[in-house]
C-alpha cells in the first residue's frame, strides 16, 4: 500500500443495497464540449454563469455529481496530473473570469494530492485576473463523499 | 414540544427563565436581545449546533417546560459535510467581517476618546464630530447600507432575525442622533452617554452578525446569490473607495493619538 495515492490500486466492496434513484436519471449537462482545452470562454453558456471546474475523475466517483454540482452551471473538466499545456489552462480560466465574466467558480477535485493542482491553477488564474469572483474548492473522497467545501483565497503575492 | 418550537423565544424565557440560562450554556445569547421574537425552532437552526448539542438542548428545555414528563423531542437536524462548524465566510461575508474589524477598532478606542473629552474644547468637539462622521458615513451609509439594501434583500424580510438586526441599526442611529444633538449644545455628558450606548449596541450587534447571522446566511445562500452579492458589494466598494481609505486611516490616527492600541482588533 505504498506509492502515489493518485494511482494506487484499490477495490471498493459494494453491497447489494438499493441504488437510490430508480429508472433513468436525466443529465444536467447543458453544453458541449466540456474538456478545458476544447471549451472557449467566449461560449454563450459561460457568460455570467456559475461554472464548475471538475477534475476528470470526480463525476465517476460522485454518484450525485449532476444534481449536486452540475445542475444549472457551466462545466469544464481537466486533469492536473496528466494533461499537457497547463499554461493554456491558466489562460482559459483567466478568460472565464475576465471575458466570460462568470459569476462564481466551483473547483471540484478528488482527495488525491495530485488533484490539488487544479485548485492551484484556478487560484493562480484568479490572482492574475483583473476581475475577481468567489471561488469554492470541493474535495471528494475516492468513494464520492464530499470531504471538504471551502471558499478559496488567492495565493499571496 | 411542537407548541414551544413555534413560540417566540422571549415568551418562553418570560414563562420559564431557566430556559434563558440553558441557552447561554450553548452560547445562544437570547436573554439580552431587545426583540426576542425569533421562534425557538429558528434559533436552533440558526445556531447550527451539533446533533448531540441540539438533542441535549431540546431535552433540557423539555425538562424545564414539562418537568417530570416524557415528551417526544424533535429529531436533531443532520449536518452535512458542507456545513462545517469552523466559520469559513464566503467572499461577500468576509468583506463585511473585514469592515466590522475597522468598526471594532473604532469602538475599542472610543472609551479613551470619551474619557478625555471636554465639551468646552473646540478641538475635542471637532474630534467627536469626526467620530460621528465615521459612524454615519462608514459604519452606517457604507456598511449598514450594504447589509440592509443588498444582503438582507436576499432573505424573507419578515424573518425575525433580520428584524432584530434592523432594530439594532435603528438603536445605534438613535444614539448617534442624540450624541450629535448633545454635541451641538456642548453637553459633554449627553455626548459620552450616547456614544457609550452606541458602542454597547454595536459591539453586541457585530458579534451576533459575525458568529451567528453571517454563517447562517452563508449556509442558505446559493452559489448564484454569493456571486451576485460579491459583484454588488464590489460596485459599492468602488463608489466608496476614496472615502473608505479616508475613514480607515482616521481610525488609525485615532489609535495613534489615544489609548494603548487594542491588539486583537488592530491589524
Give the radius of gyration of chain A: 16 Å
Indicate the low-confidence ranges of chain B by residue numbers: none
Number of strands of chain B: 0
The CATH architecture term of the domain at 44-151 in chain A is: 3-Layer(aba) Sandwich
CATH class of the domain at 44-151 in chain A: Alpha Beta
Structural class of chain B: mainly alpha
For this structure, the CATH topology of the domain at 44-151 in chain A is: Rossmann fold
Low-confidence stretches of chain A: none
Category by helix and strand content of chain A: alpha/beta
Helicity of chain B, as a percent range: over 70%
Count of all domains of chain B: 2
What is the CATH third-level topology name of the largest domain in chain B?
Answer: Four Helix Bundle (Hemerythrin (Met), subunit A)
Secondary structure tally, helices of chain A = 4
How would a crystallographer describe the biggest sheet of chain B? none
The CATH H-level homologous superfamily of the largest domain in chain B: nmb1532 protein domain like
